[in-house]
Amino acid sequence: MSNNSRRKFLRQLGSTAALLGAGPLASMGREHIHILQPEKRISANDKIRLACVGMGIMGFGDVDTALKVPGVEFVGAADLYDGHLQKVKEVYGSNVFTTRDYRELLDRKDIDAVIVATPDHWHDTISIYAMEKGKAVYCEKPMVQQIAEGHQVIATQKRTGKVFQVGSQRVSSVAMVEARKRYQAGEIGQLNVVEACYDRHDALGAWQYSIPPDASPKTVDFDTFLKDTAKVPFDPVRFFRWRNYQAYGTGIPGDLFVHLITGLHYITGSIGPSRVFASGNLVQWKDGRDVPDVVIAIFDYPETKVHPAFQTTLRVNFADGGGGGQYTRFIGTEGVLEMGWNDFKIKKHKLPEAPGYGGWDTYNTFTKAQQEAYVQQYNTKYPEAMRKGDRSESKYAAPAGYDDRQDHFVNFFEAMRTGKAVVEDATFGLRAAGPALLTNESYFKKQPIHWNPESMQIV
Predict the structure, then answer these.
(1) Which PANTHER family does the record cross-reference, listed alphabetically (predicted)?
(2) In the chain, what are the helix, strand and coil shares in percent, each to the nearest 5?
(3) pLDDT tens per residue across span 207-217
C-alpha cells in the first residue's frame, strides 16, 4: 500500500472510530476493517405526509428519523397523554394536528402514512384501521401481541394492497445486508448453532421509565389505553411502564428477542422454528411487574431448502451484575459470524484434511518404533497441502454516523413511491414475532411449544 493510499485508508478508519469505540470491534486492529457504504439514494420530489400514533420513546425517535428522509412532512399525532401531544407541538410546531383519538387522525384525507408506536396490545387494531383508511403503515415491533392478530394484519395488507413495514430496523442495515451475503456465500460452512444474548443492568433498561408529575385521570385517557384488558383503577405505572405487564406488552421476548429473531431470519432465509422451549425467572426488578426479568429460550429450526437444521439459544438478563452486554453468533462448521449492531466479523477455522498427531493423543503412548512407523505412514497419506487448515479473520463496519433506522424508513418510503417491496412486510413480521410470542407461551405454561412456520400456527 502506498503512503498516500495508507493515509487515505487511515482517515476512513478514523471517521469510524465513534461507531467502533464502544462496540464489539473496539479492541481489534482497525487496519483490516472493511468500511461498508450505504446505497446512494435519489432525493424525492413528491411529498409524503406522515402521522404517528403513540408519541412515546419510539414515537419521537421514529418521527425524528423519518424526517431525515427527503420529501417527508410530519402533519399529525395521536396519543392518550396530553403531555405527549404538547411536546409534539413544542418539537415539530404548533401547526401539527394532535388528538387523543387515533381514528380522528387516520380519517384525515391529507395523511399518506402512519407510524404505529403504541403499546403492543394496540398494534393490530390501529394498523388494520390505518390500512383500511388507505394509509401506508410503519408498525413498531413486535408486529402484534397475539398470533391471531398477526393473521388479521396479513389479511388486511393483502386485501388493501397498502405498504406495511415492521420496525425492526436492523434488517435494513448495510452491515446486515453484507453479513447475509457472506453467510449465503458459505463463508462459515454449514450452520449448526446460533446463540445470542442482550443483557442489561440498569433501571431504564429494565423499563422503569420516568413518570411525568402531572399524570392523572385528567391528563391520561387510561380507560382507552386499557382497550379490552381487565378494567383497573387509574395507574400511571401501568400506563408509562406498560412493558412490565402481560396485558399490554410482550415482555422481554417481544421487546428484544424479536430483534434477534428478525436478524436471524433475514440472514439465513429461515421462516421460523418448529419448537420453542423457554425458562426464566423474576430476579431483581420486583416492582409489581408480572413478566420475568431473565429469559432463556431454545429454538429448534428444522432443515429446509435454504438452510440445514440448527439450534438457536437466546438469552436476556436484566439482572446482569457484570453490567450487561450483547452478542449474536452464527456458528458453522468452518467459521463463526459475529454480529455487532452495525458491524460484524467472520472468524474462519476450517479444519485441515489431515487429522494431526501428538498433543493429547494416543500417539504419545506408542513405542518409539511404532511412532516412527506411524509418522512415515502419515506423511505418505497426508501431503503437506492437506495439513494446512484455514484460520483467518475479517471485519466489517458501517461508516461513522450511519443510521440503520433511517435506511429502514428509506425502504418504507421508497415502497410507497415506487412499489418496491419492503424488507419486512406483515408475513415476515409475524414469522419474527411468532417465535417471540411462543417464548412467553412456553415460559408461563412451563412446556415446549410446537410451531408450524409455514402456516404460522401453534401445533
Answers:
(1) BCDNA.GH03377 (PTHR43818), OXIDOREDUCTASE FAMILY PROTEIN (PTHR43818:SF5)
(2) 40, 20, 40
(3) 999 999 999 99
**Residue corresponding to grid cell 437466546:** 314
Is residue 337 within 8 A of residue 187, CB to CB? The reply is yes
Provide the mean pLDDT of the chain: 93
DSSP 8-class letter at 302: P
Q: Could you tell me the pLDDT band of residue 43, with boundaries at 50, 70 and 90?
A: low
Mean pLDDT of 432-443: 98
Burial code (b: 16+ CB inside 10 Å, e: under 16) for 349-375 equals: bbeeebeeeeeeeeeeeeeeeeeeeee
C-alpha cell of residue 420: 418496491
Q: Where are the alpha helices (DSSP H) in 346-425?
A: 368-381, 404-418
Q: Considering the entire predicted model, what is its pTM?
A: 0.90
Please provide the DSSP assignment of 27-94 as one string: TS-GGGEEEPPPPP-PPP-S-EEEEEE--SHHHHHHHHHHTTSTTEEEEEEE-SBHHHHHHHHHHH-T
Q: How many CB atoms lie within 10 A of CB 83?
A: 15
Whether the CB-CB separation of 338 and 332 falls below 8 Å is answered with no
Q: How confident is the model at residue 26 (pLDDT cuts 50, 70, 90)?
A: very low
Measured CA angle at 244 (ends 81, 342), to 5 deg = 90
Angle between helix 174-184 and helix 258-268 axes, rounded to 10 deg: 50
In 10 A of CB 400, how many CB atoms? 16
- The C-alpha atoms of residue 142 and residue 250 are separated, in whole angstroms, by 8
CA distance 262 to 277: 18
Q: What is the pLDDT of residue 1?
A: 43
Backbone angles phi, psi at 68, to 5 degrees: -80, -15
Grid coordinates belonging to 250: 410482550
Query: Across residues 138-144, what is the average pLDDT?
Result: 98
- Domain ranges across the chain: 48-170, 174-351+390-403+423-458
CATH fit for domain 48-170, picks 2.30.29.80, 2.40.40.10, 3.40.50.720, 3.30.160.20: 3.40.50.720
Cα(329)–Cα(337) distance, integer angstroms = 6
Q: Is the pLDDT of residue 128 over 70?
A: yes
Q: What three-state secondary structure class fits 157?
A: helix
- The gap from C-alpha 108 to its chain's centroid, in whole angstroms, comes to 32
Q: Mean pLDDT, to the nearest integer, of 324-331?
A: 96
Residue 146 phi/psi, 5° resolution? Answer: -130, 150
User: According to the CATH classification, is domain 174-351+390-403+423-458 in 2.60.40.10?
Assistant: no
Instruction: Categorize the per-residue pLDDT at 151 as very low, low, confident or very high, splitting at 50, 70 and 90.
Output: very high
For 288, residues 6+ apart whose C-beta sits below 8 A from its C-beta are 237, 244
Cell output for 177? 445486508
